[in-house]
Design brief:
alpha+beta; two-stranded antiparallel ribbon; A_A_dipeptidase; about 200 residues; five-stranded mixed beta sheet; D-Ala-D-Ala dipeptidase activity; Muramoyl-pentapeptide Carboxypeptidase, domain 2; 6 helices; zinc
């Protein structure tokens, strides 16, 4: 099945980003690979915003490492089934901005490819992950502020509980997509539900 016309693949070469797609590995909060294949997609508006953010970050000598983009509805359900925590995961019935191709999880890296200190790791489900958390180092606070500034200047909205999560404003303008509807071929027999 061809890729949905509203989605575009985000590749390291074309976007000058590093990909560390955690849900295609066991290095995520579930301990299991959720995606069958490692690929990152965004809808066209989000991809344009990412290009702007990449350019702004480059101006100050930084790049992005991407942890997740489009998340098929099946993956949204699998993550919720594993850890039904509405502070950090969208209820499947609400439709995640990720399943609309309208959200991205990422961090900043320096010219040597090292992640900037952000106070917690990706997907740490703790109040320390909140934007504005004060129980992290001054360096982590500065780095989060830089990430927030770059992303908002590029047209992204943020989610207050996750320093790594950015989304389009009014993401519900876009439909949620299953793996089949997206044509992303990300889900399959190696999904989380069968790995547990």
């Amino acid at each position: 099945m061809p890729l949905n016309a509203n989605l575009t693949e985000i590749t390291a070469e074309e976007f000058n980003v590093e990909l560390d797609l955690r849900y295609a590995t066991t290095n995520n909060f579930t301990g299991a690979a959720v995606y069958r294949r490692s690929a990152c997609f965004l809808n066209l508006e989000a991809a344009d915003n990412l290009r702007r953010a990449v350019d702004l970050a480059a101006d100050i000598g930084l790049r992005f490492k991407l942890f997740d983009g489009f998340r098929p509805t099946e993956a949204v359900q699998a993550l919720w089934d594993h850890t039904p925590n509405p502070d950090f995961l969208s209820r499947p019935s609400n439709g995640s901005p990720h399943s609309r191709g309208a959200a991205i999880d990422l961090t900043l890296i320096d010219s040597a490819g090292r992640e900037l200190e952000m106070g917690t790791g990706f997907d740490a489900m703790t109040p320390t992950s909140y934007h504005g958390a004060r129980d992290i180092s001054a360096e982590a606070q500065r780095n989060r502020a830089v990430l927030l500034g770059v992303m908002t200047a590029a047209g992204w909205d943020f989610y207050r509980n996750e320093w790594w999560h950015y989304q389009l404003f009014r993401p519900r303008r876009y439909p949620t997509l299953s793996d089949k509807a997206a044509g992303s071929r990300m889900m399959g027999h190696a999904g989380l539900s069968e790995a547990e």
